[in-house]
Amino acid sequence: MKCVATAIIRSNQKVADGIFLASLEAPEIAGQCLPGQFINIYFPETTKIFPRPFSIAGASDSRIKLLYKVIGSQTTLMSGWSAGQKIKILGPLGNIFDIQEQHYRDFILLGGGVGAAPLMFLRDELVKKGIKPYFFIGAKTKAELPVVEDSASHLILTTDDGSVGLKGNVVEHFLRMAENYKTPTQVSVCGPDMMMKVLKDISLPQNMDVFVSLEKTMACGLGLCQGCVVETTSGKYNGHYALVCKDGPVFNIKDVKFND
Amino acid sequence: MIDLSINLGKGLILDNPILTASGTFGYGDEIAEVVDVNCFGGIVTKSLSLEPRIGNPPPRIVETAAGMINSIGLANIGLDAFLKEKVPYLRELKSRVFVNIAARSEEEFCDVIKVLDREKWIAGYEINVSCPNVKEGGIAFGTNPNVLRRLTRKLRESTDRFLIIKLSPNVTDIARMAEIVQECNADAVSMINTLYGAAIDIQTRKPKINTVIGGLSGPAIKPVALAHIIKARKVIDIPIIGIGGISAGADVIEFMLAGATAVQLGTVNFFNPGAIYEILDFIEHYMDQHRLKSLNEIIGQAQV
Ligand SMILES: Cc1cc2nc3c(=O)[nH]c(=O)nc-3n(C[C@H](O)[C@H](O)[C@H](O)COP(=O)(O)OP(=O)(O)OC[C@H]3O[C@@H](n4cnc5c(N)ncnc54)[C@H](O)[C@@H]3O)c2cc1C
Ligand SMILES: Cc1cc2nc3c(=O)[nH]c(=O)nc-3n(C[C@H](O)[C@H](O)[C@H](O)COP(=O)(O)O)c2cc1C
Ligand code: FES
C-alpha cells in the first residue's frame, strides 16, 4: 500500500558531474517497490509547492536508492542532504516495468544519462531472475555518465565525444547491435524526450517491444489533479489522455504520442 | 471529546468543517490508501458533466510562487461511469458527499441533477459556475448576474437537495453574486474558485499552459479568498464555504472568523496529502485553548 513516510538519508554521494546517488531508509515503502515505480519527495518550504517525483533506482527491505541530476532549486536542496537528515516521501507510485521472462528471450535496458535510474532497479530484478540484460547508458561525456561499471549486465557505454565507451548516440549503437538480440526482445527505456521520440519514429527490428518511462510535470503523483497527461494513440488508451503518474510512468511506446 | 461539528442548515450537520475541494481529491478512492477519507466532514467530487470530457491538451499545470496554475478543462468520467464506478465507493463513506456539477447549458445541469436525485445518499450539489479554463459553460454562468440568477432559480426549482453555488473571484463585485444566489434560495455559496493566471517560458516565449490562461490556486490566493468572503458575509446570511489557499489549521480558523461556516482543502492535497490530520489537531487544540464549546462561536467573529 502506498503511504506517506519519513525517510532518513543514509548516504548521498556525487557519482558524476551534477549527478548524485542517495540511499534513504524508509522501511514502510522500500519493501513494496518494484522497478518503474517512483516516489514523491516533499520539501518543507512553501514557495515551490509541488513535490518532486523520482524513480526508484534500487530497493531493499528497508532502503530506497535514488539517482538524480541537479537541474533546479529542489534538486540543489537534495544535493545538500546529509546522513541522518529526515525527509517526507510518498510511495511507491505508478506502474511497473513488467518483466515477462516467459515471453521474451532477451532484455535490453536503454538509458539516457540520469534516465538510467529506473533501469538500475530493473537490472537488479532481472539479475534476481537469472537474466543478464544488455545495459546501454549514454551521455555527452565521460564525466556525465552515472554508471561506469557493472558486472551483472552486458554494460555498453556511449558518449557523444567518445571520451569513454563507444562514440556517438546510444540509440544508434543499440540499433547497430540488433542482430545479436534473441527474439522476442523486451526493451526498457528511460531518457530525454528526444530519445523517446527518435525511438518512436524509426522502424524497429521485428519482434521487439519497447517500453518507455515518461516524465511530465506532476502536482500530486496520485491521479488527483489530472495534470500529468500524455496523448495516446488508438491503442490501449483509445486515444484518450493517459495519466503519467497513475497509468504510467511506463508505457508501451506504441500507445503514446510525442508531439508536445 | 471535542465537538468539531458544524451545522450547514437544512438539517445538514458535518462531523467537522473540513471538506475537499472539487478537482483536487478525485472521487476519494484514488487517495484512500494514503489518507483516511472519512476524516473529512465532507467530500466534494470532481466536476461531473452529463457526458465524459477528455479535458484540455497538455501542458495542463505549472508551479508558480506559492501556488499553481491549472487548465484541466473539467476532464471527467461523465455521469454513467460515475454511477457505475464511483457510487459503490462513495455511498459507503461516513463523510457526507457533495457532487460538484459542471455543464454547458441549464438543461445539462438539470439532466444531471434529475439522475442524481435518485441517489439518496448524496448530501448535496455544488454547482461549478466558475471554471476559468473551458470554452463553454464554466465561468460564463458565474460572471453575469442575470445568467447566474436564471440558472440558480432553475436549479432551485429542479431539486430540493442542499444546493451550493460555487462562485468565481473573477468578477468586479462578488458580494452582488452572493446576494443573487441567496435571493434565489440556494442553500449556500462556496468561494472561491481559481483566479485567472498565466505564466510564460522566457526561453521559448511559449505560454506554460496550453490554454495560455488558466486558474491560479494554492497559498498565494488565500488573502484574495479571505477578502471575498468578508465582502460576501456582509450581505448574505446563508452559509459560506470558504476555499482558497488553505494549508494549515490556522488558515481554517482565519476563514471561519472571516465568515465561513465550513472550508474546503484544494491544492494542499497535492503538496501535503495528510494535511487533514494536522488541521484537525490544530483546531481541537485551538478550541481547547480558547475554551470553545462549538465552532459556531467563531464564525464571522473577526472584528471587520
Ligand atoms: C516519474 C518521474 C520520475 C523521475 N525520475 C527522476 C530520476 O530518477 N532522477 C532525476 O534526476 N530526475 C527524475 N525526474 C525528474 C525530476 O522530477 C526533476 O528533475 C525535478 O522535479 C526537478 O526539480 P527542481 O526543483 O530541481 O527543478 P525546477 O527548478 O523545478 O526546474 C528546473 C528545470 O527542470 C525542468 N523540470 C521540472 N520538472 C521536471 C520534470 N518533472 N521532468 C523533467 N524536467 C523537469 C523545468 O522545466 C526547468 O527547466 C523524474 C520525473 C518524473 C515525472
Ligand atoms: C488541478 C485543479 C483542478 C480543479 N478542478 C475543479 C473542478 O473540476 N471543479 C471545480 O469546481 N473546481 C475545481 N478546482 C478549483 C478548486 O476546487 C478550488 O476552488 C481552488 O483550487 C482554490 O482552492 P485551493 O487554493 O485550496 O486549491 C480545481 C483546482 C485545481 C488546482
Ligand atoms: S500528477 Fe496529478 S494526476 Fe498525475
Q: Would you summarize the structure shown here?
A:
The complex is a heterodimer of chains A (260) and B (304). With 260 residues, chain A is α/β, with parallel strands linked by helices.
What does this structure look like?
- The complex is a heterodimer of chains A (260) and B (304).
- By secondary structure, chain A is of the alpha/beta class.
- Chain A has 2 domains: 3-93, Translation factors (Elongation Factor Tu (Ef-tu), domain 3, Beta Barrel), CATH 2.40.30.10; 106-213, Rossmann fold.
- Helices cover 15% and strands 33% of the residues of chain A.
- Chain A contains 5 helices and 16 strands.
- Chain A has helices spanning 27-30, 73-79, 116-128, 170-176, 193-201; strands at 3-16, 19-25, 38-42, 52-55, 58-59, 63-69, 86-93, 106-112, 134-139, 154-159, 166-167, 185-190, 208-213, 229-230, 242-243, 250-252.
- In chain A, the strands form 3 sheets. Chain A has a 7-stranded antiparallel β-sheet. Chain A has a 7-stranded mixed β-sheet with strand order 11-10-9-8-12-13-16, with helices on both faces. In chain A, strands 14-15 form a two-stranded antiparallel sheet.
- The longest helix of chain A has 13 residues, at 116-128.
- Chain A starts with a strand and ends in an 8-residue tail after the last strand.
- Chain B contains 9 helices and 14 strands.
- The model of chain B has no long low-confidence stretch (mean pLDDT 95).
- In chain B, helix 2 (106-116) packs parallel to helix 4, helix 4 (145-158) packs parallel to helix 5 (174-183) and helix 6 (222-235) runs parallel beside helix 7.
- Chain B has a single domain, classed as TIM Barrel.
- In chain B, strands 3-14-13-10-9-8-7-4 form an 8-stranded parallel β-sheet. Chain B has a 4-stranded antiparallel β-sheet with strand order 5-6-12-11, with no helix packed on it.
- With 304 residues, chain B is of the alpha/beta class.
- Chain B has helices at 78-90, 106-116, 140-143, 145-158, 174-183, 222-235, 249-258, 268-271, 275-289; strands at residues 6-9, 12-14, 18-20, 42-44, 61-64, 67-70, 96-101, 124-128, 162-166, 188-191, 195-198, 213-217, 240-243, 260-265.
- In chain B, helix 5 links the parallel strand 9 (162-166) and strand 10.
- Chain B is globular, with a radius of gyration of 18 Å.
- The site of flavin-adenine dinucleotide has 20 residues of chain A, from strand 4, strand 6 and helix 2.
